[in-house]
Amino acid sequence: MQFGRSYEEFEVGATYKHWPGKTVTEYDDHLFCLLTMNHHPLHLDSHYAEETTQFGKNVVVGNYVYSILLGMSVPDISGKAIANLEIESLRHVAPTFHGDTLYGETTVLDKWESTSKDDRGVVHVETIGYNQDGKVVCLFRRKVMVPKENYLEARGGEQPGRPVPQPDKNWPGPAGE
Questions:
Q1: How confident is the model at residue 123, as a pLDDT?
Q2: Dihedral of the CA atoms 127, 103, 67, 7 (nearest 10)?
Q3: Alpha carbon distance 121, 133 (integer Å)
Q4: How many Å apart are CA 78 and CA 5, to the nearest integer?
Q5: What distance in Å separates the CA atoms of residue 77 and residue 5, rounded to the nearest whole number?
Q6: How do beta strands 15-23 and 136-147 pair?
Q7: Cα–Cα distance between 41 and 170 in angstroms, integer?
Q8: Count of CB atoms within 10 A of residue 75's CB?
């Protein structure tokens, strides 16, 4: 299974559909809110949300929706990234509720080679997130610095830093050796 891409593997206009989706539970949302100290009652207090908001129920905190979608995109987009350079824009265009399932896809808008180092480039992408009904809830654009093939080759190839299992008293080595 591929994890991320090198600069050469990105094509402008390509769209990557991230799989699988993620069903957002009340627990997920509340934990994220509490971990990030976002105590807004719209996210945590069901009575408040039912009685005083236009939605009539809790809304999943937007930063969690964004984080899920960003995480979904890693295997297809930034799994080999050298750096995430910029979040150019982030828009929450519809609410996400507990029990909704999020899906995402990312389109390559542009790419260019680094002007300072010849072993990398920048990929400009847009990710959209939508729920189980196909309703777009979030979209963002970002720029990611990704390695070229020569960068990866110089650092160990497809899985740099991966150790080799060493035979010992508990494991004699691969069968047949």
A1: 98
A2: -40
A3: 36
A4: 7
A5: 6
A6: unpaired
A7: 54
A8: 16
Q: Looking at residue 159, what is its pLDDT?
A: 81
Question: DSSP readout, 69-128?
Answer: HHHHHIIIIITT-SEEEEEEEEEE-S---TT-EEEEEEEEEEEEE-SS-TTEEEEEEEEE
Q: How far apart are CA 108 and CA 141, in angstroms?
A: 10
Going by pLDDT thresholds of 50, 70 and 90, the confidence category of residue 176 is low
Cβ-Cβ contacts under 8 Å for 100 (sequence gap 6 or more):
23, 24, 60, 131, 132, 137
At 21-43, the pLDDT tens digits run: 999 999 999 999 999 999 999 99
Residues 123 and 26: beta-carbon distance below 8 Å:
no
Residue 133 contacts residue 176 (beta carbons within 8 Å): no
Q: What whole-number distance in Å separates Cα of residue 58 and Cα of residue 63?
A: 15
Condensed to tens digits (0 to 9), the pLDDT of residues 152-175 reads 888 888 887 888 899 999 999 987
Nearest to 105 by CA among 63, 81, 59, 137: 137
